[in-house]
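JOB MANIFEST
job_type = single_chain_structure
chain_count = 1
residues = 270
[input]
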Amino acid sequence: MINKDYDLTGRVAIVTGGAGLLGQQHSKALINAGAFVYVADINESLIKDACYVLGKKSFPLIMDVTSEESVKIALSLIISKHKKIDILINNAAVDPKVKSGGIMETSRLENFSINQWNYQMNVGLTGAFICSKIFGTHMISNNGGCILNISSDLSVFAPDQRLYKKIGLAEHLQPVKPVTYSVIKTALIGLTRYLASYWADKSIRVNALSPGGIYTDQPEEFVTKLIDLIPLGRMARPDEYQSAIQFLCSDASRYMTGQNIVIDGGRSIL
């Protein structure tokens, strides 16, 4: 028998950064559990493509998480159609990836510009704060809800820059995971704990999910280095976090708040 606590039928959710790889997976998890999902992103064409794939229970929503005005407009649009919001997944982020050519789109600390810092902080951290404040305040008037912050295994340990090291490059040219990513993902855990405590008496639960590395056709050299650090011996598939999303956003986790759930194949235990 399927546990009815996982049933999200009739609930209304919004997923920020919803057009991205994990955003679509999170949205799919909620839809499969019965929820209506607003796929929020700043790129209109990507949102439409994502909703086409996700199906009729998904709704495109153009929203800039760094703008309070944009988020307030999004709230009004959702309320006008569905009258409420039950679930918020703060997933929007700027995440420099390892490309197939082995080049990471980032800069070393000594060259990292304040503009890069501010932009990435605004999207990944300030955006989560703005969305939590505006949608969470609405949830109070709607008898509560659930907020889930998408963090990373880098919220519990530092990046191993040896993963990105390229043979033959001078030290000052070596690619690295940027400082902003670690700072933002760690700060999201602090935001999670703060909001969980602040709204505990308002029936709003706030938790965080920290995924490990997800395989998306990264260079073989990088993958080999990374899986050597993972006890389960592989990277995650994009769909392997769906059950965790359903658990954390449903009544199945009704007694859980303020927690950071790390799912990284065991890397963080070493």
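[summary]
The CA atoms of residues 161 and 265 lie 19 Å apart.
The mean pLDDT is 94.
exit_status = 0
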